[in-house]
Amino acid sequence: xxxxxxxxxxxxxxxxxxxxxxxxxxxxxxxxxxxxxxxxxxxxxxxxxxxxxxxxxxxxxxxxxxxxxxxxxxxxxxxxxxxxxxxxxxxxxxxxxxxxxxxxxxxxxxxxxxxxxxxxxxxxxxxxxxxxxxxxxxxxxxxxxxxxxxxxxxxxxxxxxxxxxxxxxxxxxxxxxxxxxxxxxxxxxxxxxxxxxxxxxxxxxxxxxxxxxxxxxxxxxxxxxxxxxxxxxxxxxxxxxxxxxxxxxxxxxxxxxxxxxxxxxxxxxxxxxxx
Length: 275
Fold this sequence. Notes:
4 strands; two-stranded antiparallel ribbon
């Protein structure tokens, strides 16, 4: 029979809202995670030494997305209630905090990037956004208008997910990992589509090199060769080079300054120009 009742589950739901409020760079959300489950741990562990050991165990490093943390809380408490070994509980948290974080980050961060792309494009083209001056205000309004419903939907899913995972116990781990693998794959595809669209929209430059073939005809490397082969190929090549450098552990600051100096030099000598 489950130790935690509906009142306890409801308390966990509301306390999980503050998992990020005790954030530190040493343990990230470790202390906030403990604060969220502390009343449940007190009810599960009758012996004081077991309760203290569990509290110490759950102040360890944890980094997941706060909007989807309830599923992790549910399965942790199920394992605590079934007296699983501390090593098994610790290994489970390490294994699942990444996938849970990926789901939450993919939704919130991707939507942030998409919103910036939409509003930025409108500001550049002079569409619904009258000028670049009011673009930040429209961006925040647009972003929050959609993000808040998304957060509430995630919270609702979390509510049922936590109850289900807590009820099913530790045997739900294999099923959960399989489902998260499929969901992360779908979200990754969406992210790649978003990145592709943003690449085409914002990495916009072309070769400015031209040769005069005759008195009436000019040869343009961009128009006569590259655009006929693949429009936007310079954007793709630039993205691939930057991705390669990131994978080689080149810092983002170095890449930003490199892009600035490269743009200034090539523009000065008339090699590239902005579209």
